[in-house]
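Service request form, structural biology core

Requester: graduate student, group of Dr. S.
Request type: structure prediction, single chain
Budget code: on file
Notes: please return the result as structure tokens.

Sequence provided:
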Amino acid sequence: MDSVKKTKITFASVALFWVALGILLCYGATRLGVGSATEPGSGFIFFWSGLILVVLSLIAFAESWRHGEEVIPGTGALHWRKIAFVLVALLLYAFFLEKLGFVLTTFVLLSFLLAMIEGQHWSKSLGVASAAALGSFAIFELWLKIRLPHGIFGF
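Core staff response, request fulfilled:
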């Protein structure tokens, strides 16, 4: 069996695994009760997450048969240092979230991840991080009325 065909089969089987997992997630969510958009049930977010997983996995499955090996990203050496930095950053985020508040902690985390891990220019990192932190604060706190940690600075 040549390598392209083997890669197609491997990638297709992984995509089908995620399809099956998404279907199981949707099934479990319906047993919890999905509800509606205005009155969501316990399984609402799980159902829609499972459905999105199924759709994206089916797209990946179709792409694996259309393009073969070029669909699979490079699997070069793992960057253990970056992985360690991300894990430490997420632990620090969880530790400081209540103390410093959602907006400030999210801004610092995203700035770090974009600048240090992804190598983006600092000005771009700060702009994207501030837009994401303030945008998510506006969506959750102001629009959806979901209480987020405000921290010692009150925001």
